[in-house]
Structure formats: structure tokens, C-alpha cells
Amino acid sequence: MNLTVIGTGYVGLVTGACFAEMGRTVTCVDVDAGKIEGLKAGVLPIYEPGLEEIVLRNSAEDRLHFTTELPEAMQDSKVYFIAVGTPPGEDGSADLQYVLAVARQIGRHLDGYSVIVDKSTVPVGTADKVRAAVQAELDVRGVKIPFDVVSNPEFLKEGAAVADFMRPDRIIVGCESERAREIMKKLYAPFNRNRERVIYMGVKEAEMTKYAANALLATKISFMNEIANLCDLLGVDVESVREGIGSDSRIGSHFIYPGCGYGGSCFPKDVQALIRTAHARGYATPVLDAVEARNAAQKQVLFQKLSRRFGSDLRGHTFAVWGLAFKPGTDDLREAPARVLIEALLNAGASVRAYDPVAMDAARKEWPAAWFEAGRLSLAAHQYEALEGADALVLVTEWKPFRHPDFAAMKRLLKAPIILDGRNQYDPEELQPLGFEYEGIGRGLALPSVKDFTGSLARR
Ligand code: UDX
């Protein structure tokens, strides 16, 4: 049973590579010829730990192929995974044009019973639209060919995508025919050796499961960020509170880490899409609205803390920023809190010297040229270079090399030993004797306000 995977983004490429790794012959299709040429030459469009190795090995062993030609790829396969993008439209709802264009193309070339699998995160009811789009093309051709549409949402996390795909907590399969179910069962059997991981359900239930999971995780984070901000005001250390509540198995210790807001391609987009789906039915979503609003506000918190410490006019100040990617282990800058911080700092007249272990090229390519013009935003060659002469360090992404840095060297390099820790990575009790001013998120330890530094800035 050969597979075709359409779309070579995070989900498509990981899906294709991992099925090939499990012994299937897979053809990955993308309309982006540059991407396909790169992949044929072993150049990956994304950074993802462990992915390059399995792409190269399975390509060399002739199990993983890349093409821009869907009809050609369809010839040897009866299972088509749709893994193209569903970007947010102007109103935040998921834009299905790419998914439906693929469905129509599949309909134009279908030549025998096939299973069409929605792998992209798509709103409830999309499988029906995919089915209708395929059927419309079959009707135009005047042929009767049976097919099934299955919903098989992907739960992988960027930075751990291969590991998540290979050892998933669960595999959700929404399908309405025994024939499709048997095919999906066979496909996922190698991932299922030690315990049954597949949960079968209806198609719409599978579509909703993905949104509900992401929205609940986003809710946990926004809730915790709200509690953290309150802890700041009350002089309470949220890190103890986090440990305290996380030990309750009903709450659990995951996704309650406060910080400077969630980013990435999923949480912001999926929460918005779910809100739009509800509003389209005339249903209000005060809980989801609050999750979004808290997150937007949370991305401003680092800037607000810096303004309180240094004043609202930041001309003449330089800030070192450690971490640009929306989280460690990826070069993905989508919806990254660093974006919001840097933009706010530049608008307030400050200069920024940033460093990220892998997202530097991505930042150079993706961020507005205006940000780099006149040298106000510069990218440092290594993490310590970013600190030279800076007024403070802001930790935005908790990459491993930032976790146990050389504090003595940092103190020498920074103009003043001030650390604003957007991910609560450091121990205030370790930093205080070293002479650092420290503030995290909800540690109950606010940096002194600018009012304490009036006149000729006592700290200098
Ligand atoms: C998420 C889901 O975890 C995954 O199942 C789904 O398929 C896609 O969306 P991803 O976006 O790759 O995956 O990253 P994840 O590790 O979930 O982190 C998302 C964001 O939440 C990051 O910005 C991260 O920094 C933030 N986060 C996460 C917190 O702020 N606190 C936490 O406790 C956990």
C-alpha cells in the first residue's frame, strides 16, 4: 500500500518521512517547485530535529520520493493524505482554498477505490466539503468511483515532530466506512505495536477533537499567565504555585508554564478558527475570547516590564534578546512573542541585538527590512556577543544553551546586570548574590521602577 502525501510543510513532510521510515513507499507532492527540487537534493525547507536523517535515508533507499505532479504520484497509490496549509483568512476562519483545490485535483484523476485523508487541521464539516469537491469532479467526468474521506488530525509538536509522530499519545481516526477503517488500521499498525493508540470515531468528532485539544492547551497557558501576572502584583512566586497545582493529577504538570505568550502555527490560528466557527453559528465563546485576549496582552508584558524599568522613551537604550523562535527546537517565527517585543522596542526608540541558535536565517528572511535598517535591530554571532554593552538581557525563548549560561561573563558584558526572564529559566536566589537585578513572569519580584532611578540614573 503506497501513500501520497500532498503538502510538504511540517505536517506533510513529517508524515511522509515517518511512514517511509516504517517501510511504506511514499510520494510527497508540493506545488512549490523550489521546495521539491531542494528535497530531491536533500535540502529540507524546515529545521526539525531528526527529520533530515530520515528524509535522506529513505530517499536513498528509494522509499521516499518528491514531485510537483500529483497525477503522477496518484498512479501507484490509493491513499492520499491532504496536508496543505489552512492559513487564517482575514476574519480568522481557516481558509480552505488549498485543501479544496487538492480535493478537486484528486477527483480529476481518481481511477479506483481510494481513501482521502484530511491531515491538515480543518474545521468541522470540511470532510463533507472535500467529499463534495471530489464527487463534483467525478460527476463532470461521468464516472462512478467509490472513495472515502477520513479525518486523521495530526498532534505533533514542532521541535519534537518526528518523536511525536513515531510515538504518539493517540492516533485519531474519524471514518464512516469499514473499508477505510481497515486501511487506516493497517497503515498505523507499526506505530501501534505495544499498545492500541488508535481511537476511532466519526469524521466530525475527529475534526472537533483537534480543535478542542489545542484550545484546551491554549486555555491552560492563558489561565496560568493570568495567575502569574497576579502573582507579580501580590509578591507571590508562581513557580511554587505551578508545582503545587501541577501535582494534582486532575490538573497535571504540562502546559501550565507561564511565559510571554504562546505562538506558533497552531494555537493562535486554531483558537481563532474555533471562535469563527462558533460565531458563524451565532454562538458566543467568552472563554475562548478570553484565552486569545490574555495571550495578546501577555505578548506585551516583557515590553511593559522594560518600560517600567527604563521609561517609555527608550532612545539610546540597547537590549539583548535571547531567542527569536516561538519556542525552542524550531526556526519557526510565526506568532513568536519575540516579534511583538522587538517591534515595540524599536517603536520606542531602542536598539535590539538578538541571538537565536537556529532562527537567525529565518529572521533575516522573514522579518521586515525596516527592522534591520539603520542597524537598530542586529543579529549577533553568538549569545554572549548579543550582550556587549546592552542595558539588559531579555530571555524570550528557553533554548537549552540559555539555561545555564556563564553569569560572570554576562555581568562583564552587559552595561548593567539586569535580566528579564520571559520563561522563568533562572533562579533568583542564584542571581541575587551575583549582583543581578532579576525579573521573571509572576515571580513576585518586579524590577525597580524607573521612578527609583530619577535624576542622573543612579544605577550607572
Ligand atoms: C501545538 C500542539 O502541542 C500540538 O499538539 C499541535 O499539533 C500543534 O500545536 P506546537 O505549536 O508545535 O504544538 O508547540 P507547543 O509545544 O504545543 O507550544 C505552543 C506554544 O505554547 C509555544 O509558544 C510555547 O512556548 C507555549 N507554551 C507551551 C507555554 O507558554 N507554556 C506551556 O506550559 C507550554
UniProtKB/TrEMBL annotation:
It is an enzyme of class 1 (oxidoreductase). It comes from the Bacteria. It catalyses: UDP-alpha-D-glucose + 2 NAD(+) + H2O = UDP-alpha-D-glucuronate + 2 NADH + 3 H(+). One of its GO terms (molecular function) is oxidoreductase activity. The keyword Oxidoreductase applies. Pathway: Nucleotide-sugar biosynthesis; UDP-alpha-D-glucuronate biosynthesis; UDP-alpha-D-glucuronate from UDP-alpha-D-glucose: step 1/1. Its EC number is 1.1.1.22. Pfam families: UDPG_MGDP_dh, UDPG_MGDP_dh_C, UDPG_MGDP_dh_N. This is UDP-glucose 6-dehydrogenase.
